UniProtKB/TrEMBL annotation:
Keywords: NAD, Oxidoreductase. Residues 306-483 form the 3-hydroxyacyl-CoA dehydrogenase NAD binding domain. Residues 486-579 form the 3-hydroxyacyl-CoA dehydrogenase C-terminal domain. GO terms for molecular function: enoyl-CoA hydratase activity; long-chain (3S)-3-hydroxyacyl-CoA dehydrogenase (NAD+) activity; NAD+ binding. InterPro entries: 3-OHacyl-CoA_DH_NAD-bd, 3HC_DH_C, 6-PGluconate_DH-like_C_sf, ClpP/crotonase-like_dom_sf, FA_oxidation_alpha_subunit, NAD(P)-bd_dom_sf. GO terms for biological process: fatty acid beta-oxidation. It comes from the Bacteria. This is 3-hydroxybutyryl-CoA epimerase. It catalyses: a (3S)-3-hydroxyacyl-CoA + NAD(+) = a 3-oxoacyl-CoA + NADH + H(+).
Length: 702
């Protein structure tokens, strides 16, 4: 298949002094492709080979002036595959990159405002980088999806900077503003407009006609001040980056390092893990938000006034987020002092934002004025939507709902922020079950983007759309689920916690359980989660479930024993972990120990934690609790911290393969009823079924 030349996309101007300017002009809705870059290196080779050329500057111009346009990862991956199909093009590409360095002529990159991903990688080829404008940002957002920055970026960074800064830039999702990029040496100069850049280039050439010496181990003071990066070493891009850095330290020649980097890049970009992370964390999030935006725009109901009942951690967080979104909020509790205490959360958060220069004092004052505190039900009558966020107890919530309902207007949406209580049952306590809905926020509300929208059989379309409009206004990401104990996120999360307790009951040391969880990619081990939410609360959740199978009963009994021994969790200063008087966590005390503790396979334990959650996620999909696999992937990654490198529960099933997954679940069946495999999943395994084909879902329940 012939590869397009892309030559017509470039505009070339030969300036006096031997400076050649090459501008790549992209049409509206056109993205930077591998083909464009292949055409560029051929042009650069041609011009730099000429004796009358002393330097070459290059830039990208988006003709629709939309420098904030979202990247099209699908198009980029497709263009990479097209070049891979033509191995001669790829070999020629690598050779020409090396060749243009041999001319010893200056390459200058003109960095526009908002330069990300492959565009920034292209700019790193330059010997000198000039930022145009001061208001933009630069970075590698694709790092969040496990990708390796493209175009030989790692090898180039190791020429420009040291290993530590290379690892940071190649693995973090930080978007640096131009002043920080200057201080860190990512760009070398900044001008206001492109026309000013030519004068700076001439000035630089007058100082030095040859490429400036690159000092490998010069670390700017700003780089030294940076905090240690948080790196997920299970991401394919991070694994590849670490290997390249290790080979560099071992003395690998640059050309060999570059060749290896391209090989690693192509492997990582086509890996199932990277596809899954892009699908969930990029296209999945965008799809959910875009759909919610469309619903919000079509919904005529006004959402201007919010009422929140319960000024505890969740209620105060919801009130703050609503006020930040511009809504008028009534925060109500049993007395005004408690409501004021809840409002103080907004005060503390905004104080910090003001101190950091991220919020103006007048904006803070306006936000706080939008939160009105009260203890009177009569103040709820004007609310467009009301969210109750009181303690997770059926009796308490149903009484509250019954007491409040008479004070609400007929069109008011009544939402319950509950983790597991059936919405249909709660709705029966209200005067208008059709206007009742579940909105499960996650803690801390101002940092967790997901909201689980739970529909009972009686929730009407108007209520659902009004709730989704509210979520759109709060800039949250929704998944819509059907009613049932635990809904989706809590239900699958309970299985993660259950498996942790089950392992302890098997005699596996608690520290080993936590190590296995961390090694597998969970941000927090199940036993620490239990300490944080408190053991009595988990026991209370079990009490609310309609039935308990054998493993759940055993876990419940163990929690009762711990609570009776005074171990209630972090707040009680004793749980699975020990705590000092100030609540500081100590090291786990392993009170149980398996006879074969030294030979316990952490990978097998980790597999159990991943599989048990994914297995119940399939049950939810099969039962209609969630409609599509992407809902499960978003809910598991954003809601419960399911190992991010998997891309979510259904992505995990695809990567393992259903036949292997079912076989391994059968091997774990002796650990409890949570391992029972539905016949429908066995049938799919026989068919070698996959939930996704690349970026598209295969699931069709009809």
């Amino acid at each position: 298949m012939a590869t397009p030349t892309y030559q017509d996309a470039f505009e070339i101007v030969h300036h006096e002094g031997g400076i050649v300017a090459i501008a790549l002009k992209l049409q509206p809705d056109e993205s930077l492709s591998w083909g464009h870059l292949y055409a560029f290196v051929r042009l650069a080779d041609d011009w730099l080979s000429r004796k009358d050329v002393t330097a070459l500057c290059y830039q990208l111009i988006q003709t629709d002036s939309d420098s904030n346009k979202d990247p099209d990862y699908k198009a980029w991956i497709k263009s990479v595959q097209q070049e891979l199909d033509n191995s001669d093009n790829f070999t020629n590409f690598c050779d020409r990159i090396q060749k243009i360095r041999t001319y010893q002529k200056l390459l200058i990159g003109l960095v526009p405002e908002n330069c990300f991903g492959n565009h920034l990688a292209w700019m790193l080829w330059a010997d000198y980088r000039i930022a145009i404008g001061a208001g933009g940002k630069i970075g590698f957002p694709e790092n969040a999806f496990g990708m390796l920055p493209g175009l030989g970026s790692i090898s180039r960074m190791l020429q420009l900077w040291n290993e530590d800064f290379t690892l940071r830039l190649a693995t973090q999702t930080t978007n640096y503003n131009i002043s920080d990029a200057l201080a860190l040496g990512i760009v070398d100069e900044q001008v206001e407009i492109v026309e000013d850049a030519l004068a700076r280039i001439k000035s630089y050439l007058a100082k030095s006609a040859t490429i400036r010496e690159q000092a490998k181990y010069i670390i700017s003071e700003q780089q030294l001040k940076l905090p240690p990066p948080r790196i997920n070493f299970l991401f394919p891009g991070v694994i590849a980056t670490q290997k390249l850095i290790d080979d560099y330290k071992s003395g690998a020649a640059f050309d060999k390092l570059l060749e290896q980097e391209y090989d690693l890049y192509f492997k990582s970009i086509h890996s199932e893990a990277v596809t899954a992370m892009i699908r969930t964390n990029y296209y999945g999030i965008r799809g959910a938000k875009e759909q919610t935006k469309r619903i919000a725009e079509k919904t005529s109901r006004e959402i201007q006034r919010m009422a929140v009942i319960g000024a505890g951690m969740m209620g105060s967080g919801i009130a703050f987020e609503s006020a930040r979104a511009g809504l008028q909020v009534t925060l109500l509790d049993t007395d005004v002092a408690k409501a004021d205490h809840g409002k103080n959360y907004a005060q503390k958060v905004t104080d910090k934002l003001v101190a950091q220069g991220k919020m103006q004092p007048n904006k803070q004052s306006a936000l706080l004025e939008r939160i009105y505190t009260s203890e009177n039900f009569e103040d709820l009558t004007t609310a467009d939507i009301l969210i109750e966020a009181v303690f997770e107890d059926m009796t308490l919530k149903t009484k509250l709902i019954a007491d409040i309902s008479p004070n609400l207007a007929a069109q008011t949406v009544f939402a319950s922020n509950t983790t597991s209580l059936p919405i249909g049952q709660l709705a029966q306590a209200s005067q208008n079950p059709a206007a009742f809905i579940g909105l499960h926020f996650f803690s801390p509300v101002d940092r967790m983007p997901l909201v689980e929208v739970i529909l009972s059989k009686e929730t009407d379309e108007s209520t659902k759309n009004a709730a989704l409009k509210t979520i759109h206004l709060l800039n949250k990401i929704p998944i819509v689920v059907q009613d049932g104990p635990g809904f989706f996120t809590s239900r699958i999360f309970f299985n993660y916690l259950l498996e942790g307790i089950t392992m302890v009951l098997e005699g596996i040391p608690a520290s080993t359980v936590e190590k296995a969880a961390k090694k597998t990619g969970f941000p927090v081990g199940p036993l620490l989660v239990l300490d944080e939410i408190s053991l009595p609360l988990m026991l209370h959740v079990y009490d609310q479930l309609p039935t308990l199978h054998g493993a759940q009963q055993a876990a419940c009994a163990h929690l009762q024993e711990m609570i009776a021994a005074g171990k209630t969790g972090r707040k009680g200063k004793a749980g699975f972990y020990p705590y000092d008087e100030n609540g500081k966590r100590g090291n786990l005390l392993d009170e149980t120990s398996a006879s074969n503790a030294t030979t316990i396979d952490l990978d097998v334990l980790g597999k159990r934690l991943l599989h048990v959650v994914a297995l119940d996620a399939f049950r939810c999909l099969s039962d209609g609790i969630i409609a599509q696999p992407i809902d499960g992937d978003l809910g598991s990654v954003l809601g419960i911290g399911y190992a991010p490198h998997t891309g979510g529960v259904f992505a995990h099933l695809d990567q393992v393969g259903l036949a292997k997954f079912v076989s391994e679940c059968d091997e774990f069946s002796s650990y409890g009823d949570q391992w029972q495999v539905p016949e429908s999943l066995r049938d799919l395994a026989v068919q070698d079924y996959r939930f996704y084909d690349g970026f598209e879902s295969n699931w069709n329940p009809s």
